[in-house]
Amino acid sequence: MTPRPGAPRPPAQMWIPPESPAELTTRLRPVPARHPARTVGAIAAVVLGLGLIGGAVTGTWLTGDSSADTADGATYAEVRSVWHSVPVDTLFPRTLKGDGAGPGGADRVWTRIAVAPDSGCAAALDPLLAKALEPVGCTRVLRATYTDATASSVTTVGLVFTEADRKGMLALHNRFTTESLGERTDLMPRALPAKGTVAAGFGGDQRASWTIKVVTEAPVVVYAVSGFADGRTVADPQPADEAKAKGATSAPAQAGLGHEAIGIAERIEQGLRSAVGPQGTEESR
């Protein structure tokens, strides 16, 4: 319906098209709908089943307490099961709030517009990035795409689950850090486009800024890659840390796309931590 001349324009987020019908029916794995209280109870049962070790496991990842190193094996085993045991809306909430996450501390709100079925690493990652992750044994990749409240940017975020133990994840983290692998454009994560949405034209040439984080407390690599929603080609993509730096003047920097990638990646990681914590999925929504 066309607004009357002079009538106030609806909020920007109301102009964001809904998720495509195909995506609305996609589940990462069939997970029965749960009441929040039942969800919390189920996760509490898992923790109790693991005994004191399970309790130490959760505390270790949430608090970063290195004194519980002996519980690492149980931590990693529990986190590896998340990709097929936790509802998609918990891992990738339909709405993400980014208080202070934008340039200059501006608030952000992101809406999910697409979720991909869980997939193997070869199908979801560029070959060179998949090769870089080979030492930790990439097992599964989960992906979703979000747009900002103005529908001017799109960001694909991914969770890569691995077979590695803490030692293996530390080694990968150190390699990414010392060799600056997260800043190489040939290791940039793939975008997840979605027909019928503002991310319809979000492909390889539209990627503008990205971040890759190797989590050392769990067998997970978190990444995000952002671009413009109008499908424009970006000739010189820039790592998110550089795009966020003070004084950065590149197109991705001026558009805040580095902030978009990091802001969304951080919140998806936080949601994953909450999903395996004692408060269960209730905190991640």
Largest sheet: 7 strands, mixed
Q: What is the rounded distance between the termini?
A: 32 Å
Give the integer mean of the pLDDT values: 80
SSE order: HHHHHHEEHHEEHEEEHHH
State the shape.
Answer: globular
Q: How many DSSP E strands?
A: 7
The Rg value, from CA coordinates, equals 19 Å
The helix/strand class is alpha+beta
The unreliable regions are: 7-15, 21-27, 29-60, 279-285
Query: What percent of residues adopt helix (DSSP H or I)?
Result: 25-40%
Beta-strand residue percentage: 15-25%
Please give a quick description of this structure:
By secondary structure, the chain is an alpha+beta fold. It has helices at 21-24, 36-49, 51-63, 72-80, 82-85, 88-91, 121-124, 127-132, 166-178, 240-244, 251-254, 257-275, and strands at residues 95-98, 108-115, 138-148, 153-162, 207-215, 220-228, 238-239.
What would you note in describing this structure?
There is one protein chain. The longest helix is centred in the C-terminal third of the chain and has 19 residues, at 257-275. This protein has 285 residues and is α+β, with helices and mostly antiparallel strands. It is 35% helix and 19% strand. Helix 2 (36-49) crosses helix 3 (51-63). The protein contains 12 helices and 7 strands. The protein has helices at 21-24, 36-49, 51-63, 72-80, 82-85, 88-91, 121-124, 127-132, 166-178, 240-244, 251-254, 257-275; strands spanning 95-98, 108-115, 138-148, 153-162, 207-215, 220-228, 238-239. The protein has a domain at 89-273. It is globular, with a radius of gyration of 19 Å. The chain has a 7-stranded mixed beta sheet.
